[in-house]
Amino acid sequence: MTTTIKIASIHTIFLPNAICLSKRTGYEYTSDLNEPIYYCIYGSHINPMALLKIRETTKCKFIIFQSEHYSSPAFSNKYYIQLLQQSYIVDYLPANKQWLEINWRLFCISYHWFEFPPQNPLLIRPIDILFIGAKSDERVAVELLLKNKHPHLQIKFIYPDKYTDISNILKSAVTVLNIEYYKNNFETHRINQALSCGCNIISHETNHLHELYKDYISFTNDFESCRNVPTKSYADLVENQSYVVSMHLKWSLQMVSEREID
Fold this sequence. Notes:
Layout: E1 5-9, H1 15-25, E2 28-29, E3 38-42, H2 48-58, E4 61-66, H3 78-85, E5 88-91, H4 94-104, E6 108-111, E7 127-132, H5 137-149, E8 155-158, H6 167-171, E9 173-178, H7 188-196, E10 200-204, H8 210-213, E11 218-220, H9 234-256
Parallel strand pairs: 1-2, 1-3, 3-4, 4-5, 5-6, 7-8, 7-9, 9-10, 10-11
Helix pairs in contact: 2-3
């Protein structure tokens, strides 16, 4: 008998990814966690204590779609660590996988990939260069550098203190910058969302995912002078990556769903 698996998201920021994965795998998306089944959970770091209580009361099991870099404060939350220890883990970043194994003896069963549905492009994009993310000294330095060097361009740096839907502003931008906050990280969630909105991407270098993204975004160590020269579209990336990842992920989930987590 096949074990039931459903997909859920604790935060709306991951809702598009959860729905895309549901369509890819055929697993139902749900907002209710009230059955003794397996749930693939996006955004579990936001309220791990609540998920631990749900797991205890419903006797369900979780497959955590881990989305936080290992330097994130999420890993200082004992309830999040406890949740990971009692669940299966799927991660987005090879560096995370290694760190979890070394520091917590937590093992990932597979990787996940943040797929977004393609957005309708705007004919006129008033923002030439856009950055959205948490504020840091490095990001502010890049902002000042670009604004001083290119006063004729519309350059916008947004440092939100809480989540807001950024789809509309992404669709208003020609180029989006990816400037790392944590070392040894690569913001695939933000990058994929921007690509789905038809933006060009200029990003810091990455050792982990350079090969995957090299034809879709421009890598640089010099944001001041880099220009974007993508050779392939987001549709190509989705076709090449989403199918492979989702099918491997589905196989992994089917395997673990037949096992019991003590």
